[in-house]
């Protein structure tokens, strides 16, 4: 069934934009591995973004942690969050270095 009645519908416009991005090759969304946690995915994408901008990760806790979340946590939860963040950073950094991205 064609869309003759509504040739300028929003879905048709979005589909045309997506097709245009794909045909020009400008649709480059970084793909994260599928076997990682959501927290690791955020770190992975953030590391890719920093690398693309030419920035170096000097202090991963300060650069990757959410300051609002750190302020809201208790001392024990803050330590747990930082330990988990550092473990995720090390694993994602190792993954990035091994893939050569």
What topology emerges from the helices and strands here?
Elements: H1 10-24, H2 38-52, H3 60-64, H4 67-72, H5 75-99
Describe this structure in words.
With 101 residues, the protein is mostly helical. 65% of the residues lie in helices and 0% in strands. Helix 2 packs across helix 5 (75-99). The chain is elongated, with a radius of gyration of 20 Å. The model has no long low-confidence stretch (mean pLDDT 84).
Task: Give a short overview.
About 65% of the residues lie in helices and about 0% in strands. It contains five helices and no strands.
Low-confidence stretches: none
Q: Which oligomerization state do the chains in this entry correspond to?
A: single chain
The count of helical stretches stands at 5
Taken from the alpha-carbon principal axes, the silhouette is elongated
Beta percentage is under 5%
- In round numbers, the mean pLDDT is 84
Query: Radius of gyration from the CA trace?
Result: 20 Å
Strands, total number: 0
Biggest sheet details: none
Through-space gap between termini? 44 Å
Give the structural class. mainly alpha
Topology as a string of helices (H) and strands (E):
HHHHH
Helical content stands at 55-70%
